[in-house]
Amino acid sequence: MKLVRYNQLDPTVPSSFSGMLDRFFNDSVNASMKQFNPAVDIAEDEKSYEIHVAVPGMKKSDFKIELVDGKLTISGERTLEEKKEGKNFHTIETQYGLFRRSFFMPEDVKEDQVEASYEDGFLKLLLPKKEKKVNKASIEVK
Question: Does this model's pTM top 0.90?
């Protein structure tokens, strides 16, 4: 919570010209900076890589996932619903706004078989690995 100067007349109208400028620039900066970086966990086993993105409160349609030239980009937007219905929020710690996370994929990922699912607040991506080719040759001793 931040301390705000009390304006006895109307709290939406700044009491001075400098107050008006402060409000203009703060509102502009805050509007352009409504971004966040969701937490990401990456795991690997013999068959695949897994990426888990923590983004609770979203719908499947809120995500955009692109894989271009070995670069995986996950983006979306979480919006704050303006439902008041008798509730007065004292604190909102949930992050809202736009997000974008990008990762360079290892060369052994089967890019055409990447799968994504969303459940329990986690976007889960499964990136299967290509099978390792074992080059084996017999060499005859002369």
Answer: no
